[in-house]
Every structure is written in structure tokens, then in C-alpha cells.
Amino acid sequence: MKETTSKKTVTTGAFAISLSAILWGLDGVVFTPRLLNVDGDPLDTAYVVFVLHAFPFLLMSVFLRKQFQKWKAFTKSDIFNFMLVALMGGALGTLFIVKALFTVEFRDLTVVALLQKLQPVFGIALAAVILKERMNRFYGVWASVAIVAGYFLTFGWHLPDLNADKKTALAALYALLAALAFSSSTVLSKKVLNKFSFATATFYRYLFTTVLLLVFMVVGNKWGQFALTPPKTWLLFLIIGLTTGSGAIFLYYYGLRHVKAMISTICELLFPVSVILFDYFINKNALDKVQWISVVVMFIALYFLNHTRARKSLPHD
Fold it and tell me: Does the global pTM surpass 0.90?
């Protein structure tokens, strides 16, 4: 009976992570591209990320105010872990992926999303080092295949022209940095969730991220962005904050609490899949033949990166 319940819990957790990934795909195609200023240009990246964390945190402060009491029981190690999660996943990861989307001016959404999902390449290595999870012995082979597929996804058959493909190359770099940051956050979040509830983890992730980005706002003197934000963009900030922002993070942390970090990387592949579908049906954008082949090869590599270890990761207690 315990095993059955455990499997149901794992299934529920995997479903929650999958749903959060789909919500993030919807955000990347539908919501974030519409975060424009009064002149119709994209808002400052750091300002966008700050508002997307500060606004939901203000709401959490009202509805989850009891979470402030948990601070008294935090050890220095707990604070350090929360700070790292906020820095890597909340601040840097989000900054990099938003910057990547802004760099390509939302024309190559699918490419950016797919490159960002090279996350398992970094995540599995980090899970092995930090969480002591066993690494697949073929990790090096499949990681290399995934990276090569990512290259062809970005540049096709020809060598990149750093002048003509400057924006594409820069966006690809931002996407890969986002993958590294988010994979670090996933592994560190798993460490946090071994001790705290998903509600506490979400609350303090947003608190620490808001504080970090507030410092960035002050140092960079970004306050003028508030005056450039039209009412319809504020409405969009609200929608994102409640759904694809904090709402998706709540689902993600709930799921991550019940599955291994490596299993979550498989579920998160629904993010690029949903981006491909949303981008096609909403923006009428499609990948070419070389890119589709690259996508298939990348997904096969990511599957084999996770498959053996994921099967061994199901809890049996």
C-alpha cells in the first residue's frame, strides 16, 4: 500500500511540474513579448524581472504572512541555500532567458526555449555533485550529442557569421546561461525542499529574489521604467504574477518536493514542446527541417541522459 501511495505521489508531483512547464511556455510566447513601454518598445530586462517577483511577493505577504515566522528557525545554511536559489533561479536565470527573448525580438522564441532546455546537461552533473545522485555512465556521450544538436538548432548547416548572426549567437549564449542558472536552482531547490514545505520555499525564493533585484534597481537607477509602463502592461504583470509566475512556481515546488531532481528535468521538457506549439498556432512560426531534426536528436539525447537514472529514482518508502 505504501508503494502504491508513493507512486501516486510521484505521478501527482510529475503532473504539477509538467503543468508549470506548460504555463512557462505560454508565458514566453504570449505574455512576456507584450511587456512593452509606452513607446511600444520592450521594457528594461532587470525592471521586468524585478516587478515579476516584487508584485507576487507583495500578494504573498498578505495571504502567506505566517511564513515570516519561519525566519526565526532558519540556520545560516538555510539562508545561504535560499539566497543561492533566489540568485540562480529567480534573478540570473530569469534575467538571462528574458534577455534572450528580447535580444531576438521574439522572432526565434522556439530556438531560445529549446536551447534553454539543455538544462538537464547541467542539472544531472550538478545533482550528482550536490545531491549525490548517481550519474548515468553514458552522461558524457549523450550530453555531447545534445550540445551538438543545440548548435544545429541555432545555426543550421552553415558556420555562424558573427556579424550577420550576432543577435542569434548572443541570444543562444543567454539561453545557455539561463539553462545553467535554472539547473543550479533546480538542484538547490531540491535541497531546500528536503527541509521546508513548497509554500515556504516559494515565499522565500520570491522574498530573496525581490531583495536582490531591488539592489540591482537601486544601483542601476532603473526607477524611470515605472513611468514608462502603461496601464495594460501593469494588467499583464498582474496576470503573469498570479498564473505563469508565482502560480507556476507553487506547482513546480509542490512537484519537486515529491520527485527526484532528475525526474523533474524530463517533465520540464514540456516547456520547449509547449513553446513550439504555442509559437506555431499563435504566431504562425515553424521550425525548418534541419531544426526539426535537431529537436528530435536533442530530445533523444535528453531522454537517455535521464532515463536510466530516473527509473532508479522512484521512491519506494
Answer: no
